[in-house]
Specification:
The chain is an alpha/beta fold. 35% of the residues lie in helices and 18% in strands. The protein folds into four domains: 164 residues, Response regulator (Rossmann fold, 3-Layer(aba) Sandwich); 179 residues, Rossmann fold, CATH 3.40.50.2300; 36 residues; 74 residues, no CATH class. Helix 7 links the parallel strand 6 and strand 7.
Length: 537
Amino acid sequence: MSVEAAAETYRESMNISLKLLYDDSYRTCDDTAANTAWMLAEYMNKRLDHKIRSNECTAVVAVGCGGFINPAYLAKEWNVPIFSTGVMQQIEVNPIQFPSAIALSGTYEGFATVFMQLFRMNRWYHVTALLDTAATNVIYVNTANTLQRQTKADASKSFQFQILRFNATRFDSVQPVLDVARTRSRIIILFCHAKIGIEILRLAESFQMVNKEYVYLMLQPSQVDIYGKLNLFSSPPASMSQTFTNFIYLTTHHTGGSLLDDLNQRIANRTLEEYNISFTTDAPPLDLYGTRGAYDAVSLWTAAVNRSSSCDGISLASKIKNHLFDLETGLTFIRPDATRLLDMDIYVYDGKARELTLFMWYDSAADRLIWTKPQTHQENFSNPLLNPVRDIPACGFLGTDAACAQGTMDKTTMVILAVVIVVFSLTTSVLATKLIVRHKRELWWLITEDSIPRRTVTFNNNPANYKSEFRGRTVTFNDHPTNYKSEFRGNPVWIYTHPSNHSRELSVKILNKVSALRKLVHVNHDNIAKFMVPCVR
C-alpha cells in the first residue's frame, strides 16, 4: 500500500515496484534470522549479473523479526539503503559500520531515554528492575541492559540501578527477588509479560509492598497479546484497586485522528483480504512499530530519491538522517545517528473509571515528556506522577530505625528529647558568647582605619599624601604601597599596606601575592621572619 501511494505521488517522475522476499515455511524469528541474509544475497547477485542501470535505485526494507546486522553489511557492500522495521540496538545502525542503514522502528536506547526522563523528573535515583529470564522475546532483556548502561554513564553519577532476575515458569523465584528489591529501592520496573506483572503485584501486596512508598513501572512495546494489553488492567477486583494506584504503564504511542483512522482502516481491510489477519480497534495497524516502520520506509526512500541526482545508497541515507519529515503517518524525525525514536504513551490508574488512562506521552521529535492532563487535576488521580514518592523512605529502605519501627514515640521519649534540645540550646548559647568575648580580646592588636588619626600634609600640591602617627611611629600614606615598622606583643613587625583605590590589574597581582604569602603562615625557621597573617579589606 505504501508503494502504491508513493507511485501515485511520483507517477510523473518515478516507476516504483516492489519485490517481496519471504518463505511461507518460516514460522519463527529464528527461521527468519537464519535465512534472511542468503535470500537477500541470492536476489541481489542475480540483479547484479544483469547489470543494474545507473538510474535504477534500490532500497531494502528488513523484516522486524530476525537478525539485522548481516543484511546491513550486505547493503553497505551493495551501496543501497536498508531500513529496519524492528527495535534495534544503536550499535546495529552505527553510521560508521553501516552508513546506509536507517532504524525506523525505535531503539532500546529510546526506551531507556523515556525511563531516564521519568526518573529525573521525579528524582528517582534508586531503581530496581525485575527481569523475567523465561520471556521468549528480547525486548525486556535488551531494554533492561540498555537502561543499566545509561544510568552508569549518567554525568550526575547519582543513579543506583540493579537488575534482579527471576524465572516466571517457577513463580517461587519471585519472592526472594522482591525481598531483595525492598532493601534497595522503592522504584521497581517489571520487565515481563503484563499477566506476569499483575501476579507479581498481587504477591507484592501480600508483602505490604504496594503502599504509597512504592512505584511500579512496566514497558510493553505494542498492544498485542504477546506482550499484554492495557485492558488486562481494566475493572480489577476491589482488592486490586489500591495495588494499581502507584502503577505506571508505558507503551508505544496510539495513532489517531481522522486521516490516520482512515489509513488504519484501509491497511486492516487489505490485511484481512490478503492474509486473513484481523486487527482489533484498540490496536490498529499503525500502532505496531513494525507496520509503521515498513510503511514509512517507502515514503522516506522515495522522498530522498526525488531530491537526489544519483542512486548512491550512502548519499541517499545521508539525505534522510537529521531531517524532519511530514509523512502520511505524521511528523517523523530521523536523528543524526540514523535512528527514529518511538513516541511513547504513559498511563496511570484512574480510580473512578477503574482503568488505566493516558496521563502523559513522550514526543520523540521534541525529546520531552508532555502532559495530556493538567498537573493540578487530581480528582480521580492519586498517582506517582502527580505526587512522586520519595526516592529514599524517611525510615530508610529497611525501616529498622526504632522510632520508625514503632510508628510513634511515647510521651517519656518525647519529654527526654525536649530536655536534650533545651540543654543543647543553652550550652550552645553560652559557648557562643564566650567565643565572641575571647575573639574580641584576641583582636586587641587589629589595625583599623579609624585607629590611625589622619593629619593631612600637602606634598607637591598633592593632598592625597599625608602623614600620621601610629603607636609613636610616623607613617607616610600616599598612592603607593606603604611599608612601616611597628610592634606586636613585644616583637618588632613589618607591616605592608596598600590603598584600595588601585586598578583591576593591580588587584589581581595583590591577591596573587596574598595567596602565595598565606603559605608562609606555616613556616617556622630561625633565619626567616615569621609571617603572621594576610588581611584583605
